[in-house]
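In the lab's daily routine, each protein ends up as an entry in a very long ledger. A line of letters takes care of the sequence, but it says nothing directly about the fold. The three-dimensional part falls to structure tokens, numbers that each stand for a local backbone shape. The outcome of that step, for a single protein, is printed below.
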Amino acid sequence: MSKVHEIFPLVVYQGNIDCHSEFKQYTDELKQYWFNGYENESPEYSGRIFLHTEEKYESFFDDLKKNIDDYMTHLNVDHEKLSYFVSKSWVGYHNKEVPALNVHSHNETNISFVYYLKSSDNSDKFCVSQSKNVNENTGGLFETGNQRNIIKGFNKYNCNNYTITPHEGSVLIFPSNVLHSTLKMSEQEDERIVIAGDVRVTLKPEYQNYHQGCTHPTKWLEL
């Protein structure tokens, strides 16, 4: 009897933001925090990356912490020993005139998140990619063409891309070095508004004698 050992699965966590219903009151004003991808190369370039410093949005970040804890639980990690620091957060705004996001990853951080404040059934999909499939044992085996293909269909073993439906009120959490983008599935009629950002993970100060992770910033020295 044959058996397939699924050894290295990537986890992209999708959870719910409990305060979503009340948080929707900020939908219109959050548009002003959009970094405007037409004018700015990145959120950092716009300077609009510190949404988390606004006290009135604290409820969202409280819920975000609960979801990160749950994400860590799925990884069988003791999150009680960890601290999380949101280093950047910004607003993504998309309508039918705004192009899809190109494939990219986030540097100098550990965990990234995307919260769907407003979305619809025809919103762009969230797409996770890998540059090289470790199961592609023969060069070009998983490549596809319009006329002739060796693979008979995509599955979790042979695909290089995976899409996730952006349900309103949900948050996606994933390793920051994961390649990701958005994928247009149909003509988007409604606007899509997200809060995205990056999180640094450290040990809590009292667990400085653990080697698995970064020491707490209170133990750092700025030179």
DSSP finds four helices and eight strands in the chain.
